[in-house]
Design brief:
By secondary structure, the chain is α/β, with parallel strands linked by helices. The chain has 13 helices and 8 strands.
Length: 283
């Protein structure tokens, strides 16, 4: 027997109800309807179907909610400011050409009724640094050309060689055999137990086994966090450090035309090129 699950895109009301269960701040609850309407319109009109999915919406709510919690704990006014909204939109609706990001920013600010002309935009390195500095943030996907992002991460100081590992995949048939996949998964299990960032390049054959990790579908027992790693018909709960992060580097065209939407939606995405490290006068 085969069971088919058909799940249509959530309505604006569905988005609001789900978001309310994630929110602790009363100030943010007043904006959930507007945030839901903005996301619904962006999702419906995006150029590449499902490049941005529901996870982008839930993550934007999480980012704002976490920031308001910190402000409240510090005794400051926990209100949604334009700079906070700008940060949340840039973090979660990256990965596409700047024109499409501008349309997203315009949609969110227009729905909420805020002006953004004088709001400072964050450069790409700052957005990457914010992601890597938040233990609960989604894992990161960097879209680039000719693997330039790999070198830029270390040149810019975003990653340190002492706290990062790089794993290269291969398209050769023998390198995609079950034995090679199992050996690479074993390496990843060792990396996961350390507070490091794992940079993965051309590791398409491994992502299917890491879906629970990329979903951040963790369980905790006696203070230790575990995640399921699967290979073939077998799966095992493996220990993972709370500061372990995955950074996937992919070509821009691959992300736009080849990678599956369920994989893309698991990541916070940014385009990272050499020009992102250049001063305005150098461009």
């Amino acid at each position: 027997r085969c069971v088919t699950l058909y799940r249509p895109p959530p309505t604006i009301t569905d988005l609001c109800v789900t978001a309310e269960g994630m929110v602790a701040s009363g100030n943010l609850k007043g904006y959930l309807r507007s945030l839901s309407e903005a996301f619904f319109e962006i999702y419906r009109t995006q150029k590449r179907n499902d490049f941005w999915g529901n996870r982008e919406f839930y993550s934007i709510v999480r980012v704002i909610n976490a920031e308001l919690k910190e402000l409240a704990a510090a005794g400051k006014g926990a209100t949604v400011e334009p700079q906070l909204l700008m940060k949340a939109v840039q973090r979660n609706f990256g990965g596409r050409p700047s024109q499409e990001l501008d349309e997203c920013i315009d949609e969110f600010f227009d729905r909420i009724g805020m002006e953004f002309d004088d709001v400072e935009r964050f450069p790409t390195p700052a957005l990457i640094r914010q992601n890597l500095g938040e233990p609960d943030a989604r894992h990161l996907m960097l879209l680039t050309k000719s693997n330039a992002a790999l070198r830029l991460l270390f040149e810019s100081g975003l990653l340190d060689h002492g706290r990062a590992e790089v794993m290269f995949g291969s398209t050769f048939p023998n390198d995609q055999s079950d034995i090679c996949v199992a050996m690479n998964l074993q390496r990843i299990k060792g990396f996961m137990q350390q507070p490091i960032s794992l940079v993965m390049v051309h590791c398409d054959s491994l992502y299917e086994s890491l879906y629970d990790l990329l979903n951040q579908h963790y369980m905790e027992y006696a203070g230790q966090r575990y995640v399921r790693i699967s290979h073939g018909s077998k799966a095992k709960q493996c220990p993972i450090h709370k500061l372990f992060r995955v950074i996937v580097i992919t070509e821009i065209n691959d992300a736009y035309y080849r990678l599956a939407p369920p994989l893309l939606n698991r990541f916070e995405k940014q385009i990272f090129l050499r020009r992102d490290l250049m001063e305005r006068g150098d461009e």
